[in-house]
Amino acid sequence: MAGMVPYSDYEKALRRAWPFGAFDDFFAPLAAISADDAFKMNVEDAGDKYVVTAELPGVKKDEVDVELNEGRLSISVDKKESDEEKNKNYLQKETSEWQASRGVYLKDAATDGLTAKMDGGVLTVNVPKQAEKSNVTKVAID
């Protein structure tokens, strides 16, 4: 059981076994963040609203963009290195600049009353629901 690898991590495990795994690890910070490595996001249906939470440790609220466009809620992060960090002489640095974006479609999302709060590295977005409108129009035939 200890040797089992989850299917989603199978490719990563194969790369580690490859003789050049150390070479890949050296250049890993230069690689773009994949969807698997992007921030974690939960969407909860709380009756009269949706509650969307995103785990964003180490990210400041001015580095986050939340947008609701025709039912699609998008959360984008653009983590930048500060000028103070750029002037330091690091021997090893495991933090970096990165960008990630996640989205979810909420068909009955309302724009009125939309709120977002960042606390302790967790972004919480409350999206109120609107009464579902029927997009079907009955046409009388003359």
From TrEMBL:
Its family remark reads: Belongs to the small heat shock protein (HSP20) family.
Q: Which Pfam families match?
A: HSP20
PANTHER family given in the database record: HEAT-SHOCK PROTEIN 20 FAMILY MEMBER
Looking at the record, the residues that make up the SHSP domain are 32-142
Query: Gene3D superfamilies recorded for this chain?
Result: 2.60.40.790
Lineage summary: Bacteria, Bacillati, Actinomycetota, Coriobacteriia, Coriobacteriales
State what protein this is by name: Heat-shock protein Hsp20
> What is the source species?
Tractidigestivibacter scatoligenes
